[in-house]
Amino acid sequence: MAKKIRILSLDGGGIRGIITCVILKYIEEQLQKLDNPTAKIGDYFDLIAGTSTGGILASILLFPDNNKKAKFSVETALDLYAKRGESIFNVTFWQRVINPFGLFNEKISQRTLEKQLGEVFGNLQIKDFIKPSLITSYDIFHRRAKFFTSHEATSDLENFLVKDVCRATSAAPTYFEPALIKSLYGQEFTLIDGGVYANNPALCAYAEARKIEFSKVLNNPAKPDFPSISDMIIVSVGTGEVLKPYTFKQFENAGKVKWIQPLVDILLSANVETTDYHVKKIYETLGPRNAKNYHRLMPHLKNASSEMDDVSEKNIYELIQAGLAYIDQNRKELNDIARKLIKNA
């Protein structure tokens, strides 16, 4: 019996990735109850896509153990965000004095981020991921999208260190400097956060899945090659709905500087919503039953901050609470997702 291709897509959103972890942790717990007490969610998807913080999370979920299975649970990822987030996003008093509001250079030093990524991933290469990946970034020199796809990293030309991939996908403009990285072949790239065009990478993941011979890549003859949308289950997880209003009065006669931060906020939210609209419409062409194989999990932020770098203890607590509130209100759908993942293993 043919199995569906299970795709996990993870939005960008900085420290708000904690919400994603809370939701995925619940799904993982259901997998442990229903299928395997030691289940890790990375083993239950056939392709994982991520942008920015979602790209880092995807890399953690795809990290191999000695048996080429997922090494880390979602709880490990949640600990990483909650415990290391503060040091990654910390801006010292002196930096605030010489660089108020990030007007003169990037708000956050990339050195701490690079150190943390090095400690987590070491010299792991993307070709060693347990499943196909699609991690987004944007090449500002050649002016084109750059996708990191583990299933195509069969030569050094397309193979990269995971820590470099994570640095590239999370190089959010105004927060971090661009990433200057090299492939294992030695080709140099100047990259920024893939959120500039795909903060929600679900549509990119769909397009990538269409060209993969999954039966060969996964060594599973029950998996379809070059799958169509009817062959896919897509679980797309957001980092909290941002609906901050901007009034005409606020931006009447506003100059370039005043527009910078609101524009980043609006562009990131807009492409998240647009991608969801397009994927939903694609699934609607299949009829009511198959349309239910698209799951967009987008919680409300509740009392949490929409800022991507608010790592205060209070805000981390509120992000966790926002994730828990979403679980409480959507338990049936999340349980259904777990059952579908097991059925199509």
From TrEMBL:
Residue interval(s) of motif DGA/G: 193-195
Entry annotated with the keyword DNA-binding: no
SUPFAM superfamilies linked: FabD/lysophospholipase-like
Active site feature: S52 (nucleophile), D193 (proton acceptor)
Keyword terms, alphabetized: Hydrolase, Lipid degradation, Lipid metabolism
Domain of life: Bacteria
PNPLA domain span: 8-206
GO process annotations (BP): lipid catabolic process
Family: Belongs to the patatin family.
Protein name, as recorded: Patatin
Originating organism: Flavobacterium macacae
